[in-house]
Amino acid sequence: MGTPDFAVPSLQALLDSGRNVVGVVTQPDRPVGRKRILTPTPVKVEAEKHGIPVLQPERLRRPESVEALKALQPDLIVTAAYGQILSKAVLELPQHGCINIHASLLPKYRGGAPIHHAVMNGDAVTGVTIMYMAEGLDTGDMISRVEVPITDEDTTGTMFDKLSLAGAQLLLDTLPDLIAGRIQAVPQVEEDAVYSPNITREQELIDWSSPALAIWNQIRGLNPRPGAYTLWNGDVLKIWGAGKPDKAESSVSGMEPGTVVQVSDKGIRIATGAGILTVTELQPAGKKAMDAAQFVRGGQLEAGTVLGR
Fold first, then answer.
1. Structural domain span for residue 262
2. Is the same domain home to 33 and 164?
3. Does the annotation list 57 as a binding residue?
4. Could you tell me the pTM of the whole model?
5. Regarding beta strands 54-55 and 24-25, do their DSSP bridges make them parallel or antiparallel, or are they unpaired?
6. Which of 2, 56, 156, 197 falls 20 to 30 Å from 110 in CA-CA distance?
């Protein structure tokens, strides 16, 4: 069971290892883009390449959906970013249970946006946890885990790719002991639980009174989607890239946060609540993303401009 690109390497790993994948469950096809073209999920596309039956229930909890699953007679259900919570009836179907490949080191970052939150919070390391599924949201006993560092060059996009591959390998490493009944699952400590709900529009807006380092992490954490933004001349200005702030460099004294300090083809230096942030990639409303040099050639942004108003 999976939906986005994150789940594809795990499906590929199961197939490459010779496991008998009797079926794939994914979200229904959805309209995508301005033309609203009905588009299958990445997991469905991969499954159909291999002739695997695909189920796409709108609600997996419905009796007819459970019966369709039951007909497949699964020994094990593997989920990875599927997008629906499994009911007790589904959890009890397979002999070896239902396991989930979750992109965090549980119990930290339960929920739908664990990668975004890890990068936005400036964490130095995250990882993947494989756990038994329970009726709660990412609350099941932990089976195995692997740590993956977050470097200064990483964004949510690059970590998405790294963690999807790490999850696929962890799945292959875990399955033999799981099938043989050698797993010693560890309960999660509820007091340590941290939730990572889906990103809201409010979290996308840059607060220039925040420290430069926090804004830099926000920009990385919202790249490649949904993107951090500020306001410029009343329009949305997306900020896609920035240099890591220099701790030794403080904001210009008395300058309002969001004020453009300097404009050059190497970057646009902006005062924050603590330090100066050098923005290197931007996207004005109605245009494509561009680097600072391209943006500056437009000549519309001057030093002294205050962003965010």
1. 203-297
2. yes
3. no
4. 0.95
5. parallel
6. 56
